[in-house]
Protein: Protein kinase domain-containing protein
Organism: Ranitomeya imitator
Amino acid sequence: MGGHPVGMLSMGKAGLSPRKTCLLLNSAGYKAGGEWESAADIVRDSSCAAVGTRHLTMALILYSVLSIRFYTAEIVWFLYGHNIIHQDIKLENIMLNTNGHIRVIDLGLAHDGVTSSNNIFGVTVTFHFMAPEVLRKKGYGTAVDWWSLGIVVSEMATGRSPFYIGSISKMAYRAITKGKPEIPSWLDADVKHLIKKLLCKNPQHRLGVCGNIREHPFFTTISWEDLVKRRARPPFIPFRPVLENHVLQWLEEKKALLPVTGLSYVLPSWAR
């Protein structure tokens, strides 16, 4: 998993017992960047004193059209590059690594080997990110992740979900299954079109399943080859002094007090 240019966390160690499976994940690839949503808050807060405008850096650095295009493209490639349904694509599950590239986390609900032509069942994921077919308890496939991506893009572009997100579940159900997404008229035309295509109620007509999303006009300026090979420069590089003051404690390299031994797999860099 860790070898994919845009992707998931890598496994550090693994072991089996008669009752349990033990997986230790290698977090070094993303811990310096932290949670994407938190990084946005950190950048915003750190710039307030300097510019006196609470939303300026959020808009210009993380959530400008250029930034939305870059981050969305990396998520698109993640969804294309792994033969899985993640089932819980949302801002809270997207991290930034030390170089500013995304890492998608929380694979507890993921299913592998699922395509647009075969379905699974069951109500999972975060309620307000559920696709209509999930809420209707129908079989669903990879289209559910493209729906969730539409919610994520809308949140990046407008700061809110395009559907009702209150505590009244019946209203949320009705909005998602029957209502039209609320998309501001002032949004960039290509962003609006992308959101509408991703939030198509019919999963068979949803962009990502129907049509090649990489050919959407919103991604005209994206070089997919550069993106996959990590030659494209992210719009935001996590900077250590601000991050460590807000959310991280940087520890000196030390040997584990209680090293875990006898596991069936050990990442070479951990074997010491």
Summary: The longest helix spans residues 65-81.
